[in-house]
Amino acid sequence: MTRARMVLAVLSVATMVVACGGRHTPVASSAGTSVQARLGRADVATLPTTVELYGSVEAGRSVAVSSRVMAAVTAVSVKAGDTVRAGQVLVQIDPQTALGQEAQARGALAQAQAALSVATRNHARFKALAERGAASELEPEVRLLKLNAD
Hints:
This protein is mainly alpha-helical. It contains three helices and two strands.
């Protein structure tokens, strides 16, 4: 070993001796202190697996549901909090209401078709009269406007 290494090794050992040496003060003994303990019997028991908690829950997503037809609800297929999927029937409405609305719409269609037929005939009639000079030239144009408006 070289002299420098030898000096370094001696200094290291001396440093450890000085750092680790010294007096050790013992911790106060607790031999005079007593501990109270009680023995008991351990029993095997079944504990309930449910816990009752109180609070409120908010949905992460909610959707407004509506109907195209105003009618009385006759049956509800789901209850609050149920998970539903797209296309699932949620409520059933009174079919009589929808049938009545359909009948009204069919009546209105028939009335509009009749009005169109009358306007078409009137236009043709006044056009023929105007061609013979029996009606003013303005009359067929008025009937045509009325026909297109209906």
